[in-house]
Design goal:
Blueprint (H helix, E strand, L loop, with lengths): L1 E4 L4 H11 L5 E5 L2 H12 L9 E5 L6 H15 L4 E4 L14 H29 L2 E6 L12 H21 L4 E7 L6 H7 L4 H7 L7 H14 L3 E3 L1 H10 L9 H45 L1
Parallel strand pairs: 1-2, 1-4, 2-3, 4-5, 5-6, 6-7
Helix pairs in contact: 1-2, 1-8, 3-4, 4-5, 7-10, 9-10
The structure holds NADPH dihydro-nicotinamide-adenine-dinucleotide phosphate and 3-Dehydrosphinganine.
Length: 299
């Protein structure tokens, strides 16, 4: 029995499909009911037995804790206790620090961060009691490094990591495992939406890494979550970033720990070149803007 917030679109929907293919019962959590029903239909096409169910719950995960707690309780009464919760509801907004409304910082923090706290808080007691459980947080590569345009978004995704590290230390003795996923740009409706307002700098820097398919991202996340890996990343850049930014994150295996120890210096060296190229993108864009302003004035 899996619950997926943000399960009606993009990465979340692909995660739900991936789990359904493995025979799971799914609860989808999102706001828009039409999108939920649409996704339910699509997911049900992938059933492997006729007992499987997709339950839809319409709620805003970022608004009111007691509301979130209630709907999760209802879902657990219908389908039984949640074995895996995937916190995938989230959104991105970008812009220069001074151009972003203060309310944007509040909004991203409540959807991306509190929207992961509330559902997790609602399932954790039962998971600990049962000595069974997986909690997945979907952060972002922008939750591993700060980038131009992401002052509001990056901080909300960094926050998830702090939550996940602390929580993992608490729940590990109860056989509950936490996974944090750091996807790169992924081809989803949410990605199309955020691209409408993305600054040029942010776009150019992000294009260092190619865009992924949501199916591929979902597959990796589900695999890592089932294995109980703390870290879930995609591709060779994802691997390098995770290794480089491992810090005091929990370690899942001796192999992982050894790889981090051995590769850290090399990856930092590579990172210095990336950082240099990002700075030069920012400087070039600034000069371009200055030039076109002068041209506008003289025209
Ligand atoms: N696509 C990308 O490039 C990347 C995405 N990510 C992260 O992955 C996650 C999914 O992204 P993606 O698939 O692109 O997003 P989409 O916009 O395609 O889907 C977002 C899902 O979350 C739901 N949702 C949004 N806000 C809320 C809310 N307040 N309460 C409940 N449900 C909500 C949406 O449904 P509804 O609107 O009906 O509520 C929808 O089901 C996000 O956390 C995003 O930050 C990370 C790295 C890269
Ligand atoms: C050894 C060091 C390797 C360094 C690699 C550096 C990679 C930088 C590119 C980061 C792209 C950020 C994607 C954010 C995705 C996201 O969350 C979107 N939804 C928001 O746009």
């Amino acid at each position: 029995r899996y619950a997926v917030t943000g399960g009606s679109s993009g990465i979340g929907k692909c995660i739900a499909i991936e789990c359904y293919k493995q025979g799971a019962f799914i609860t989808l959590v999102a706001r828009n009911e039409d999108k939920l029903l649409q996704a339910k239909k699509e997911i049900e096409k992938h059933s492997i037995n006729d007992k499987q169910v997709v339950l839809c719950i319409s709620v805003d995960v970022s608004q009111d804790y007691s509301q979130v707690e209630n709907v999760i309780k209802q879902a657990q009464e219908k389908l039984g206790p949640v074995d895996m919760l995937v916190n995938c509801a989230g959104m991105a907004l970008s812009g220069k620090f001074e151009d972003l409304e203060v309310s944007t910082f509040e909004r991203l923090m409540s959807v991306n961060y509190l929207g992961s706290v509330y559902p997790s808080r609602a399932v954790i007691t039962t998971m600990k009691e049962r000595r069974v459980g997986r909690i997945v947080f979907v952060s972002s590569q922008a939750g591993q490094l700060g980038l131009f345009g992401f002052t509001a978004y990056s901080s909300s995704k960094f926050a998830i990591r702090g939550l996940a590290e602390a929580l993992q230390m608490e729940v590990k003795p109860y056989n509950v495992y936490v996974t944090v996923a750091y996807p790169p740009d992924t081809d989803t409706p949410g990605f199309a939406e955020e691209n409408k307002t993305k600054p040029l700098e942010t776009r150019l820097i992000s294009e260092t890494i190619s865009v992924c398919k949501p199916e591929q991202v979902a597959k990796q996340i589900v695999k890592d979550a089932i294995q109980g890996n703390f870290n879930s990343s995609i591709g060779s850049d994802g691997y390098m970033l995770s290794s480089l930014t491992c810090g005091m994150a929990p370690v899942t295996s001796i192999t992982e720990g050894l790889q981090q120890v051995v590769t850290m210096g090399l990856f930092r060296t590579i990172a210095l070149f990336y950082l240099g190229s990002f700075d030069s993108i920012v400087r070039r864009c600034m000069m371009q803007r200055a030039k076109s302003e002068v041209a506008d004035k003289t025209a």
